[in-house]
Amino acid sequence: MSINRREIFSLAALGLGMALSQPALAQEWPARQPLRIIVPYPAGGNADSAARAIAEIVSTNIKQTVIIDNRPGASSIIGTEAVSRAPADGYTLGVVSDSHAINHAMAKLPKSADILGAKVPYDAVRNFVPVAGMIQVPLVLVVNPKVSARSVKDLVAMSTKAPGTNFGTMGTGSPWSIHMHQLNNLTKGAFVDVPYKGLAPAATDLLAGQIDTMVMPVHYAAQHIRAGKLVALATLGAQRHPMLPDVPTLAEAGYPGLSIANYLYFVAPAGTPQPVVDRLSREINAALRLPAMREKMITSGDPYPSEPSELSARLLRDIDAYGTVIQATVK
């Protein structure tokens, strides 16, 4: 196929126009319209609370309204798809979590739509650009006080000697389910998975003694641990958490090699102008580093300032790591 001189000039003009339009858009941003943050989880949860705390500060600093748009459902797929289809103009951000990597890995399974509640109609790597961190959610392994185990080794021994020892998870394919299976594999335990539709119903049954153990967010579990309604066996991070200073890490409990925490971060549609991404990254991470932010997020998680390159690398690592667990445990 041949291209004449007029077509060459037209293509060159089109390319020049696109190149010039990005700086122009970046220069006027965010004067044109409010910034929208799509949260693929219900209002009132830790993702929603953290997004609103950050939005309040960013809105003041950029002198523009920031709107929170909750679109829960289908393992966060509904809201995340809306982000992928939004104009790449810097006026739409999305919140994603570990589920972003898990859904990407899960999509390769034949029955993924049945497990997740919807098909995954986007590519977690190609259709989004990471912008900034949001929160990190540290985890703790807890048991109901009626369970005799008071250490991880006691619990593992109980699972092998008493078939039927079970753990609750927030639904097949959820981050908590994957983490519990990672723990099961590491300890060589023999636990039975009892899936729930969310944290609240699983925690209710654990507190009532209907299930034996589960992995739970530190910020959610701490109140129940202090009240004696749950017993903490180990935190799953690299260091002890300041909210539970007397609880050993998993490595200290005798099981090194697994250090995990849930995390949430901000993304934009692929193609969003780089100067706008850079500005958003600076504004959000600066808000997260404010001393007052830790107090604002006391029930949500730990502030997690992070650069786009770090988030891209973590996403790729998680797709591989979660994919291995999914292939071995999800049928």
Comma- or semicolon-separated keywords:
331 residues, alpha/beta, 2 domains, 45% helix
SSE pattern: HEHEHEHHEHEHEHEHEEHHEH
Radius of gyration from the CA trace? 22 Å
What characteristic shape results from the CA principal axes? globular
The secondary structure category is alpha/beta
Could you say what the CATH architecture of the largest domain is? 3-Layer(aba) Sandwich
What is the fold-level CATH name, i.e. the topology of the largest domain?
D-Maltodextrin-Binding Protein, domain 2
Main sheet summary: 10 strands, mixed
Q: At the first level of CATH, what is the class of the largest domain?
A: Alpha Beta
| Count of domain modules | 2
Q: Supply the number of helical segments.
A: 12
Report the end-to-end length measured between terminal Cα atoms: 49 Å
- Give the helix level as a range of percent: 40-55%
Oligomer: single chain
Low-confidence stretches are 7-21
User: What's the overall average pLDDT, rounded?
Assistant: 88
The overall strand count is: 10
The amount of beta strand, in percent, is: 15-25%
CATH homologous superfamily heading of the largest domain = Bordetella uptake gene, domain 1
Quick description:
With 331 residues, the chain is α/β, with parallel strands linked by helices.
Task: Provide an overview of this structure.
The structure is a single chain. With 331 residues, the chain is α/β, with parallel strands linked by helices. The chain has 2 domains: 5-23 and 33-134 and 264-329, Bordetella uptake gene, domain 1 (D-Maltodextrin-Binding Protein, domain 2), CATH 3.40.190.150; 138-235, Periplasmic binding protein-like II (D-Maltodextrin-Binding Protein, domain 2, 3-Layer(aba) Sandwich). 45% of the residues lie in helices and 18% in strands. It has helices spanning 5-28, 46-62, 77-85, 98-106, 112-116, 152-161, 175-187, 199-207, 218-226, 274-288, 291-296, 308-329, and strands at 35-39, 66-70, 92-97, 128-143, 166-169, 192-195, 213-217, 231-235, 261-269, 302-303. Strands 1, 2, 3, 4, 5, 6, 7, 8, 9 and 10 form a 10-stranded mixed sheet that branches. The radius of gyration is 22 Å and the shape is globular. The chain starts with a helix and ends with a helix.
